């Protein structure tokens, strides 16, 4: 059971309208947003930030952004966000081989060097204490420009917020996200954990 109960999607009309964004990315409105709308200013600001962060401005593809989100969520241990990120990566055209081998991104041939450094950046930026250093900066600059690095850090920071929110809330993971989590992450031990509705 979640710490705070999600509200009905029709609770706040403005949030509901903005949340149509998630029907494309996930196929449903996340329970996290339905909880945030207890304070509609938070839910609306969050959705607008999410839309800005995930907008395509260059070579950081929608699929790569979602894989960056997955690495960040994996680093922090948020199973809810892991499932959402891998589902969104699938829906945004990540290659099947990448989805099947996301755990081995550092060595698997399905990932380019540019993708590897982006995902390493996500891992290092998500650690506590933060592990971003000169080496990762030098590697990033071999493949990405400053605007693209800002886009990546936007995703990492957005999911830092979501990881804290959903792991603290024990947000119940939705059926579609469970399916994606089990399909792509289950072989490495992913399960719903505290997000299955029986905790708290």
From TrEMBL:
GO molecular function: peroxiredoxin activity
Record-annotated Carboxymuconolactone decarboxylase-like domain positions: 40-120
Signal peptide stretch: none
A Pfam family hit: CMD
Name assigned to this protein: Carboxymuconolactone decarboxylase family protein
């Amino acid at each position: 059971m979640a710490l705070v109960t999600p509200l009905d999607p029709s609770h706040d009309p403005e949030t509901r309208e903005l949340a149509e964004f998630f029907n494309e990315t996930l196929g449903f409105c996340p329970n996290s947003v339905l909880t945030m709308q207890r304070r509609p200013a938070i839910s609306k600001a969050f959705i607008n930030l999410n839309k800005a962060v995930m907008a395509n401005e260059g070579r950081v593809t929608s699929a790569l952004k979602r894989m960056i989100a997955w690495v960040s969520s994996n680093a922090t241990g948020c199973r809810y966000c892991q499932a959402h990120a891998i589902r969104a990566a699938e829906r945004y055209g990540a290659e099947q081989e990448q989805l099947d081998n996301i755990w081995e991104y550092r060595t698997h041939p399905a990932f380019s060097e540019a993708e590897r450094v982006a995902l390493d950046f996500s891992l290092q930026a998500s650690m506590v204490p933060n592990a971003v250093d000169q080496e990762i900066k030098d590697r990033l600059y071999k493949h990405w420009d400053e605007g693209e690095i800002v886009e990546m850090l936007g995703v990492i920071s957005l999911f830092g917020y979501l990881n804290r929110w959903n792991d603290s809330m024990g947000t119940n993971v939705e059926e579609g996200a469970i399916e994606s989590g089990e399909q792509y992450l289950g072989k490495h031990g992913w399960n719903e954990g505290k997000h299955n509705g029986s905790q708290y």
